[in-house]
Amino acid sequence: MRAAVIGSGAWGTTFASLLAQAGTPTTIWARRREVAEEINAGTNERYVPGHRLPSTVRATTSRSQAVYGAQLVAVALPSQEARSVLGSLGGTLGEAAVAVSLMKGVELGTGLRMSELLTQVLGLPPGRVAVVSGPNLADEIAAGQPTGTVVAAQDEAVARLVASSCATATFRPYTNTDVLGVELCGAVKNVIALAVGAATGHGMGDNSRATIISRGLVEITRLGLALGARPETFAGLAGVGDLVATCSSPLSRNQAFGRRLGEGMSVDQAAAASRGVAEGARSARAVLDLALAQGVEMPITAGVVAVVEGTATVAEVTDVLLARPRKAEGVHAPPHE
Ligand SMILES: NC(=O)C1=CN([C@@H]2O[C@H](COP(=O)(O)OP(=O)(O)OC[C@H]3O[C@@H](n4cnc5c(N)ncnc54)[C@H](O)[C@@H]3O)[C@@H](O)[C@H]2O)C=CC1
Ligand SMILES: O=C(CO)COP(=O)(O)O
């Protein structure tokens, strides 16, 4: 077994290390030559500072060379860049190769989840595309801290294959066949983490944070159910697990991005200060468009879109959310009369 990882950022490099630790030699595609050379010398200080990479992790700046002969091709790019980066690989993967999305976003304009995008751009049947999503802050995993994750694929056998290729003594994958649900959880929790950060930056405390997390989970669940996800997925590692990790960890880039907005920075300033991609900032609009098309209400997500697009301040969004008609707690509860 040989694997390729497209993307040499925090998660791509860390996931490549997991694959290598699990016994699968892995080649990373890096956009920049100096990053590829550094990985070949055993480190990636910008994205995985302070860690040595296994010797069976290699890197190249040639996409076709990275995927040549790979039975597993994992993709860890910013979601909005995936289409353009992967375009040249369409139809080049081996007969039995499996593509794995490590990304947590929704494509703007098309509303495609990343597994759908991989299917389309790489020319693969949906059954040969898997996703990995869960409470997986790259810095902690690179440091060898234990965590669980979810590997989802339509075909349980494909999910098991991917799970066995990345399982280590500290990285414990569970399998799931609810690809849609697992993927939506990952994309929407980034939007909710951004909202939590914005509230914190604006001076709100733990009660506000917990309220946004809980009502955020309702939004994720509402959209997921409307699109056909399975309810139990939301209570699992990819749902509650990742929502809690991202909304409570100071390591989260999405939360930090939101906090900077809450403190008064512009979107451009917050992006410039970010340690890496903050998917929630760009996927929020795509998620909201999906919700609008389904007639699903997502008021926190709508608030994030308004702040990111500059049509409302954090203070104005807070007022709007608090002034909404009161209702019962349920996912589908109508407003009180
Ligand atoms: N970092 C983390 O803890 C985790 C990240 N993810 C997800 O994985 C995906 C990738 O995230 P990270 O690796 O953390 O991002 P990152 O910001 O650390 O790295 C992104 C990588 O993509 C490359 N890139 C950016 N724009 C590009 C372009 N136009 N063309 C080619 N390459 C480009 C960068 O050079 C870099 O190598 C995101 O969807 C993220 O939500 C998922 C789980 C954990
Ligand atoms: O997806 C993640 C943790 O599971 C990483 O979150 P951030 O992109 O907000 O850092």
From TrEMBL:
Catalytic positions are 189
User: Which Gene3D superfamilies does the UniProt record give?
Assistant: N-(1-d-carboxylethyl)-l-norvaline Dehydrogenase, domain 2 (1.10.1040.10), NAD(P)-binding Rossmann-like Domain (3.40.50.720)
Domain Glycerol-3-phosphate dehydrogenase NAD-dependent N-terminal, by residue range, is: 4-158
Q: Taking every annotated instance into account, which residue ranges of this chain make up the domain Glycerol-3-phosphate dehydrogenase NAD-dependent C-terminal?
A: 178-318
Pathway in which this enzyme or protein is active: Membrane lipid metabolism; glycerophospholipid metabolism
Q: Which domain of life is it from?
A: Bacteria
Describe the reaction catalysed, as an equation. sn-glycerol 3-phosphate + NADP(+) = dihydroxyacetone phosphate + NADPH + H(+); sn-glycerol 3-phosphate + NAD(+) = dihydroxyacetone phosphate + NADH + H(+)
The EC number of this protein is: 1.1.1.94
Q: Where does NADPH bind?
A: 11, 31-32, 47, 104, 138, 253, 277, 279
- What keywords are assigned to this protein? Cytoplasm, Lipid biosynthesis, Lipid metabolism, NAD, NADP, Nucleotide-binding, Oxidoreductase, Phospholipid biosynthesis, Phospholipid metabolism
Please state the protein's primary subcellular location: cytoplasm
Binding-site positions, sn-glycerol 3-phosphate: 104, 134, 189, 242, 252-254
- Subcellular location, in the record's words? Cytoplasm
Main function? Catalyzes the reduction of the glycolytic intermediate dihydroxyacetone phosphate (DHAP) to sn-glycerol 3-phosphate (G3P), the key precursor for phospholipid synthesis.
User: NCBIfam families from the entry?
Assistant: PRK00094.1-2, PRK00094.1-4
Similarity section = Belongs to the NAD-dependent glycerol-3-phosphate dehydrogenase family.
The protein, known as: Glycerol-3-phosphate dehydrogenase [NAD(P)+]
Q: What's the source species for this entry? A: Actinomyces lilanjuaniae
What's the gene? gpsA
